[in-house]
UniProtKB/TrEMBL annotation, chain A:
It comes from the Bacteria. Pfam families: BPD_transp_1. InterPro entries: BP-dep_ABC_trans_perm, MetI-like, MetI-like_sf. One of its GO terms (molecular function) is ABC-type maltose transporter activity. Belongs to the binding-protein-dependent transport system permease family. Keywords: Cell membrane, Membrane, Sugar transport, Transmembrane, Transmembrane helix, Transport. This is Arabinogalactan oligomer / maltooligosaccharide transport system permease protein. Its main location: membrane.
TrEMBL record, chain B:
The chain crosses the membrane at residues 46-64, 71-89, 109-134, 173-192, 230-254, 266-290, 318-340, 369-387, 431-451. This is Maltose/maltodextrin transport system permease protein. It is a multi-pass membrane protein. GO terms for cellular component: maltose transport complex. One of its GO terms (biological process) is maltodextrin transmembrane transport. It is found in: Cell membrane. One of its GO terms (molecular function) is ABC-type maltose transporter activity. Part of the ABC transporter complex MalEFGK involved in maltose/maltodextrin import. Probably responsible for the translocation of the substrate across the membrane. Belongs to the binding-protein-dependent transport system permease family. MalFG subfamily. It comes from the Bacteria.
Amino acid sequence: MNQKKKSRIEVTAMYLVLLVVAVVIFYPLIWTVGISFNQGNSLYSSSIIPENFSLDHYKWLFSAESDYLIWYKNSLIVSGATAVGSVIFTSLVAYAFSRYQFVGRKNGLYIFLLLQMFPVMMAMVALYIFLNMIGLLDTLTGLILIYLGGQIPFNAWLVKGYFDTIPRELDQAARIDGAGHLRVFWSIMLPLAKPILAVVALFNFMMPLFDFLLPSIVLSSADNYTLAVGLYNFINDQFANNFTRFAAGSILVAVPIAAIYLYLQRYLISGLTAGGTKG
Amino acid sequence: MQIMGRESSHYLYGTAYIKGVIQMALPDYQQEDNKETGGRRKKKHSPALAVFLSILFAGLGQLYNRRYVKGICFLVIEAAFLVTMLQSINYGLWGLRTLGTIPGTDHSIRLLVFGVLSVIGIFFALALYIANVLDARNQARKIRNGWKPSSFRNTISAFYEYAFPYLMTFPGLLLMIFVVIFPLLFSVLLAFTNYNLYNSPPRNLVDWVGFDNFVNLVTVPLWQDTFLSVFSWTIVWTVVATTLQIALGLFLALIVNDPRIKFKKLIRTVLILPWAVPAFVTILIFSAMFNDDFGAINRDIIIPLIGGGGLPWLSDPFYARIAIILIQTWLGFPFIFALFTGVLQSISKDWYEAADVDGGSRLQKFRHITLPHVLFATAPLLIMQYAQNFNNFNIIYLFNEGGPPVRGQNAGGTDILISWVYKLTFDTNNYSMAAVISIIMGGIVSCFAFYQFRKTRSFKEEGEI
């Protein structure tokens, strides 16, 4: 009886903790949704439960006045290209590192991973000048190339870890049957590594969507802005004035992304632990 | 095109491959036999001469070895290199050495960029050149030992065999060189110049100043004070924020994993929500909520519950730091939670049953079974969390732009090293000092990471094809 009582108290305490955490999680999210339905522009007169419920800000985003849809399109282009490109580049590199012997194999990835620990700020100055020299400044292409190059070391390391778990007997058998290097890669490695490649694609789709530092340096004309830069500019100029608009714009991006994440979270985690921690 | 051709003849190619493996595995004495058959040729062909020729001009050694196509390729490459690149590389090196001589005409920073690119170009040319010399030497040795050059077709396929991993990594390597290596070299070099607002090109020239910037950082009081306070806050921030998010994630994972808790799936979805919402958005939202005057935290929570005029979340360094740590915990715990939940489910029940038989208490079970399992499986990812927070620019900058300002320092109260570097670079244009601090930061984090990577076995050698 005593044991049972103790257990019941424990369970109640656990639910209580979870309830508190849930409130803390939901409060800012609901607050944002509430703010976005407020009529005015200023944060001061807005409240979590709007006094004058209105869809003005959403309507404005889709009106001809705003560049919101262009930014949305730009972001999708950058993210899509980065996702596809990253899968191609990293899987090629990871395949070589996992299965072949060549100069620099032992420490190559290592060195790049360590070099990447250096902060990117100074790199931005160099990249800015370099992009300017080759005429890719203020273009989406330049931005995509930087994302692609920067993601290779970490993701190649993840994918290599996964490739290493695919038994070598499989590709050796294929080789004896006469398959060439690319054939083994294409018909054996890639299909078996689908889970980790999906993770890489997803991460690289998400990462540029809300990266704000790099695009804010590379892109200068409003037509080329990605969502993060555009949204930041809503509130950067006059903080209190456009916050409601920012809230509305953010919700329209955050909701689909959150949905994808929640739907795929199981694969994300298993991919990360499988690739990253393989002993 | 080449791939299609190869696929049609892959059977033949496969056997050739196996033969090659067998040949490599032949014991030494059998290879000696092979040598004897070509003994007559032995004296005629000298590897030393081949090496000498190929050092003289790439490709000559190969021509001497009667590998005409290869030799001509090398010849053409070197000739093209000399004709097209020599002048610009020379210019680049000159620029790197002098950083320009005429103010207003020479743009020091462009010259620096050009110089770094030239150095990278030279490195590649040298690698190719060394490959050429080694190739000539090896081939000459083989010829001396009686090796008969195989047909052109076989040579191509042997080359493909050898070069395949390089071909695979080349596109990635090229991108990484321009995005990772080149900017890094550039910023390391910047640390030894006096590039700042006052002598920035094109009007003025930048000069090499040696270690002056490093010396200034530790001797000039303004820099010294700022560096020490920013550095110590960076360490506190990294340790406290990351440990908090890991602890909270672990705690919640343990609770939700308890068999007595129901609606697990729903609870997990809710707890992962902060991870799913883009951090960029949530940080800006929190920044508005923590606003001193009209933020929701002060207006709806602090003032009604505690009274007074609300807390100075954005204008007082202490409260701003608390707020930032709380926000990071909110942002970071779901990832850890999801990670640990996965691991907890994979721990075998046998362990706990064995512990029950031995009469282990709950705390003992946690300490000796759960914790080691969880930490062992996720250590690299946890370490990465620390490294990420050390470099977590977004939260510091988006929350309060590193503010509030602190008297006697040129960094704000919540500035960590990376956001300080950002300010030095883009606000005050003190590029050289920013580069110095970048180097120090990079050194710290990569030492840390190096130690970690050595411990993970992902990099250990395994057998290969």
